Amino acid sequence: MSWCFAIVNGRLAEIFFAKKRGKSNFLGHVYVNKNEYKTKKEKEWIEKDTNKFKLFYRNSVYRDLTNGDIYFSVKRFGNVMNKNNYI
């Protein structure tokens, strides 16, 4: 499982995804506050990632606003985490 920062519906968020066979499967996202991240490195990650990833989320579908790609999310994030023994 991987994660990165993104702008989701106009707000800063961490998005979680898994790559299988060259495709990204979105697992979910969580909104965060920028002031939670204090170090210079974290602030650089936020700037770098948010310039790349601007998403719109609705009804378990993520749409990339920069290039129009559509990604479907896994509906039950908790069940996926337990099955793959990430917890």
Describe the structure.
The chain has 87 residues and is α+β, with helices and mostly antiparallel strands. 23% of the residues lie in helices and 44% in strands. It has one domain. The chain is built from two helices and six strands, in the order E-E-E-H-E-E-E-H. It has a six-stranded mixed sheet with strand order 3-2-1-4-5-6, with helices on one face. A hairpin with a 2-residue loop joins strand 2 and strand 3. The model has no long low-confidence stretch (mean pLDDT 84).
The N- to C-terminal Cα distance equals 11 Å
What does the average pLDDT come to?
A: 84
Strand order of the largest sheet: 3-2-1-4-5-6
SSE string: EEEHEEEH
Number of beta strands: 6
In terms of structural class, how would the helical and strand content be classed?
A: alpha+beta
The low-confidence parts are: none
Main beta sheet? 6 strands, mixed
Number of helices: 2
